[in-house]
Amino acid sequence: MVTARHTLIGPRARALAIRAITFWAGALLLGLIGACSSLPRIVPDMARTERPPQIEGARGPLSAARSKEILDGLRAGGRDVGVLDRHLALEAAISDSPLVAGNKVQLLQDGPTTYQAMFTAIAAARDHINMETYILEDGEVGQRFAAALIGKQRAGVQVNLISDGVGTLGTPAEFFVPLRDAGIQVLVFNPVNPLTAKAGWDVNQRDHRKLLIVDGKTAFLGGINISSVYSGGSFSQSARNRPGSKLPWRDTDLQIDGPVVAELQKLFIETWEKQKGPPLAKRRYFPALKPQGKEIVHAIAGSPDEPYSLIYATLISAIDSAEKEVLLTNAYFAPDPQLIASLKGAVGRGVNVKIVLPAATDSALVFHAGRSYYDELLRGGILIYERQNALLHAKTALVDGVWSTVGSTNLDWRSFLHNQELNAVVLGDEFGQLMRAAFDADIAASRPITLEEWEKRSPIQRLKEVFGRLWQYWL
After folding, report:
1. Catalytic residue at 128?
2. Quick check: 325 and 400 in contact, CB under 8 A?
3. 176-180, 257-261, 358-362: which has the minimum mean pLDDT?
4. I want to staple 194 with a disulfide (CB 3.0 to 4.6 A). Which of 60, 74, 201, 467 is the partner?
């Protein structure tokens, strides 16, 4: 009997069912969204300024002549001077934090490469190590980091560690005992237990930053947590896992050496003090820094304590100023209306917009919430690709080949409203080429999503998308 009933459902009945599901779910969605606050409206021309951008060096603001010399050198390597100047002006106007010259920036892809670079830097530490992370698991990788940090603390290097209360909820308390016993100062950001919170309590606010600073001279930041999920690479043949096996995680970090590390150090200490951590042991947290390279870097922090996310404002302004292309790679994609409007507006100006998103995820609700926007984005001319054979966790962007960012920030409501986040913007064509190569490699390992294909998805898939979108504000 059941089989007979199902044979009566033809294409027209199926279409009506889909329409009904979409209508009622959409009505419920609008009702819930109406009760939520929205992200700040960014004025489209906020970055326009008549003043040339001020550049800082190892010893503070550079003279106008030296700033011009550095910028002229940067322009000399670019293919389009006008595009670079536009983005330089944008960055200079978006926040009070400086554009800092003289940095060496290395692009690190996947966990094994990043961890090895981190362990090398930790082994070379002589004065202090400051580490801030969302997840710190008690697994093989976590134990390796614990052993390395304990070893340096016992050798006289002061280690200060910030871990998030929710991100380490699954980490046994016993994991941190040897760290504290060795003399490492451990601070839990916004602990889940309000009785242990020293700086007020809001369990919805999380420290999602990933930052490692060694001797105030070298810094690592990006999307990589301390977890054994990063044990494998995502570009090798072995990444083509058999069904049922775990996918390797694909992520991106930066190693930065140079004057901008002082800006990152300020952010770490600011978080430590706001969370009322114990007094930091006296160390040379701000040593004299010499130029290590030629990259101009802008360190940008996002915090729920601020009126709006500077990272969000910077990204929106970069997209709204794009002239040629916008290339986004992101793990958790649940865009707000303004981001969608900016992407569609860019396409309307003739800008090529491509987004690489996960084909698999560790967060089903965010995954389906993001997919609920595919129809609108595809109709708006945005090209969407889903990364295969890996669990995509990277958060990067490249605009016009000269504006690059890598960090911890996802394109979702949580990152822009509830989390502490950290990104670095690197300006210039040379680093942009490295970012493009990384993006092209991900495209080569991805499957394009077409509107024709997407319209054929099942009613169950559509229902999952609606349900995911209902919760996007809190995910």
Report:
1. no
2. yes
3. 358-362
4. 201
The beta-strand segments (E) located in 134-246 are 158-164, 185-189, 206-207, 211-214, 218-222
Predicted pLDDT of residue 262: 97
Catalytic residue among 87, 128, 152, 208: 208
Which residues are CB-contacts of 288 (< 8 A; sequence separation ≥ 6)? Answer: 58
* Active-site residue, from 298, 395, 418, 464: 395
Q: Is 208 a catalytic residue?
A: yes
Residues constituting the chain: 475
45 counts as catalytic? no
395 a catalytic residue: yes
Q: Give residue-wise pLDDT tens across range 324-375.
A: 999 999 999 999 889 999 999 999 999 999 999 999 988 888 899 999 999 9
Catalytic residue from among 164, 215, 253, 442: 215
**Pairwise CA distance, residues 367 & 382, whole Å:** 18
In one letter, which amino acid is 154?
A: R
**Residue 231: is its pLDDT beyond 70?**
yes
Q: Residues 253, 336, 400, 412: which is the catalytic one?
A: 400
Q: What is the pLDDT of residues 48-103, one digit of tens each?
A: 444 556 666 666 665 666 556 555 655 555 555 566 766 777 676 666 778 899 99
Question: What are the strands, taking DSSP E only, across 148-271?
Answer: 158-164, 185-189, 206-207, 211-214, 218-222, 249-250, 252-257
The CA distance from 96 to 61, in Å, is 13
DSSP string, 355-406: EEEESS-S-HHHHHHHHTTHHHHHHTT-EEEEE-SSEE--EEEEETTTEEEE
**Active-site residue, selected from the candidate residues 87, 152, 210, 418:** 210
The third-level CATH classification (topology) of the domain covering 103-274 is Endonuclease; Chain A (3.30.870)
Q: Is 401 left (phi over 0), alpha (psi -120 to 50) or beta?
A: left
Instruction: Check whether 138 has a pLDDT greater than 50.
Output: yes
Are 149 and 122 in contact, with CB atoms under 8 Å apart? yes
Q: Where are the domains of the chain?
A: 103-274
Catalytic annotation present for 368: no
Q: How confident is the model at residue 234 (pLDDT cuts 50, 70, 90)?
A: low
